[in-house]
Amino acid sequence: MADWAEYYRRLGGRGPSPLALRAAELASPPGVALDLGCGDGTETRFLLEQGWSVIAVDLEPAALELTRERTGDHSQLSTHQADLAEYEPPAADLILASASLPFVPPEHFGTLWTRLRAALNPQGLMAVHLFGDRDSWAHGDSAVGGMTFHQRAEAEALLEGLEILQLEEQEFDGSSGRGPKHWHRFSIIAGTHPRHSEPR
Questions:
Q1: Which of the chain's termini has less CB crowding within 10 Å, N or C?
Q2: Distance (Å, rounded) from C-alpha 1 to C-alpha 177?
Q3: Residue 73, in any domain of the structure
């Protein structure tokens, strides 16, 4: 069982993820952002500081409490406790999901993805992490049930019809709420209208 509260405490003082930094740089001007799986609140706080109105969503009450603490109950913040598998997202200009979508079971992932795409406002951006099939949680003794993993071609297929601004595939060893692991991750930023794409 993952102890995410302890994991968040160990991450104390970290900066916002490169995914959030790049998404905020590309998304202009600030509008309404969803931070799905807000965790320790670092990305939520960063987006608030950049002028966004943020809806922070997490299944864990401890995560939402920590997010509110770290943001001082900011006037442009709202928090929502929800299982992403059942979440009905409101319209948004930026949808940020840092390493949270893979925790949605395969039988619910497609429906949630459709909802997220439909929630994007015109000129909106989706910035998400997906886990690849070589992630240590995808197989063997370290496999974690009920998670969704993608091959690169499957990740690309999810983005059909969107303007892909970033699609980076990364593998590295690091820590997690379940201890050390090998990460295989796709860092994706895609938009609903043409922009200048970067090399992949």
A1: N
A2: 9
A3: yes
Query: What is the pairing mode between strands 181-191 and 163-174?
Result: antiparallel
Q: What are the φ and ψ backbone dihedral angles of 37, each rounded to 5 degrees?
A: 75, 60
Structure tokens, 81: 């406790």
Domain that holds residue 43: 4-9+20-191
Please tell me the total count of domains within the chain.
1
Q: Cα–Cα distance between 37 and 89 in angstroms, integer? A: 13
Residue 200 maps to a domain: no
10 Å CB burial of residue 193 (0-12, 13-18, 19+) is: exposed
pTM: 0.90
Span 143-200, pLDDT tens digits: 999 999 999 999 999 999 999 999 999 999 998 878 899 999 999 999 996 544 444 4
Cis peptide, bond prior to residue 29, ω within 30 of zero? yes
